[in-house]
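> forwarded from #structure-qc
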């Protein structure tokens, strides 16, 4: 068995679901876990909640509190924080401990979105070494004496001239993080081009006392195997590769544990998975919003399948579960999983200059908290 230990957590598979805004809510995580159990016989990896803002959590913003919903049998419960302030980080982590909100805290320093980096948050923040270390230390201090491990995710750096991942890995481990994860792109790359797995290998050589996880361009079970073989990393973090393919975790578990690979679903099985996803979203959000949420998943689920433009367009506007059932009933359930459904998916976009606060690159040792960088509610 290929396993992974992160602090007190012993995982039977070294696979982590990456937090994705508007995607990895309790409905999607429940679906992934159900499909892994159904197709591989176990629920073995770590499924991380959508990223929530530490300040919004402390202030109990209703949207944020709703996002921290976990399933009744979900374990371990994994919550990712976006944070820029050591004091607020401590308060949020202490709240998680005191109110038993999660079993694992991950911290996001990898977001490349301009509205985040221009205020010094996300993938801009590790450039400020002392501030970064203070934030990690605050979360670790808040969880001291508990079984809740703190982990940290970051990118290679801001751009090709400002790499920060080696320092970030060393600092995070030194401050007590139980694992670190690297998305092997810079903020300037966003999601474009190819991830540089060589930098994962460099980080693994540089950080030897805690597990190092790799993230970037894992779109199939073979990709995870190749990443671990080529880089020596201890585990993989999967994001866009599972969009429209929540059964991917069963395939990853099988590949990394040497068990038989599950047969890819045919169109009838995919339709059933779509229906279950919609049902879970309706349970979480209510039917009206749940149907709006399922629409963005439709194209991912049907990629490569001969569904017909009329059905696709109608599904993209579906407004109720009964209507969804009628439309899914028009699909040919015998169509096998197509070759065209494989490969990269999700947002890619183009590289670009990283928006940063004025003077951000002047002093990497400056530990002043960036102004207004966390004045937003989660998912906003």
């Amino acid at each position: 068995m290929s396993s992974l230990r992160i602090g007190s957590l012993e995982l039977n598979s070294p696979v982590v679901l990456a937090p994705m805004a508007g995607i990895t809510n309790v409905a999607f995580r429940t679906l992934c876990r159900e499909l892994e159990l159904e197709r591989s016989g176990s629920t073995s990896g770590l499924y991380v909640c959508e990223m929530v803002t530490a300040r919004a959590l402390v202030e109990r913003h209703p949207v944020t509190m709703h996002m921290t919903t976990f399933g009744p049998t979900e374990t371990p419960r994994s919550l990712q924080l976006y944070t820029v302030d050591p004091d607020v980080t401590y308060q949020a982590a202490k709240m998680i401990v005191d109110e038993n909100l999660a079993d694992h805290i991950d911290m996001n320093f990898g977001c490349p979105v301009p509205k985040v980096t221009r205020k010094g948050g996300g993938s801009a923040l590790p450039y400020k070494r002392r501030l970064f270390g203070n934030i990690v230390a605050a979360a670790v201090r808040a969880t001291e004496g508990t079984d809740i491990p703190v982990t940290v995710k970051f990118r290679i750096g801001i751009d090709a001239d400002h790499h920060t991942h080696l320092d970030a890995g060393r600092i995070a481990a030194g401050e007590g993080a139980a694992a670190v994860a690297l998305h092997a792109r810079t903020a300037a790359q966003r999601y474009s081009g190819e991830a540089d797995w060589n930098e994962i290998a460099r980080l693994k050589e540089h950080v030897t006392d805690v597990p190092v996880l790799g993230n970037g361009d894992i779109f199939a079970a073979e990709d995870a195997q190749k990443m671990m073989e080529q880089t020596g990393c201890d585990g993989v973090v999967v994001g866009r590769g599972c969009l429209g393919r929540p059964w991917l975790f069963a395939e990853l578990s099988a590949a990394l544990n040497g068990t038989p690979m599950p047969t890819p679903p045919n169109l009838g099985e995919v339709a059933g998975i779509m229906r279950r996803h919609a049902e879970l979203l309706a349970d979480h959000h209510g039917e009206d919003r749940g149907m709006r949420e399922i629409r963005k998943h439709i194209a991912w689920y049907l990629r490569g399948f001969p569904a017909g433009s009329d059905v696709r367009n109608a599904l993209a506007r579906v407004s109720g579960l009964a209507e969804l059932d009628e439309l899914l009933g028009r699909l040919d359930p015998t169509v096998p999983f197509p070759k065209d459904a494989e490969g990269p998916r999700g947002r890619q976009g183009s590289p670009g200059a990283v928006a940063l606060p004025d003077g951000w690159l002047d002093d990497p040792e400056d530990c002043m908290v960036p102004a207004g960088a966390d004045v937003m509610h989660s998912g906003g």
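QC bot note: The longest helix spans residues 267-285. The CA atoms of residues 184 and 195 lie 5 Å apart.
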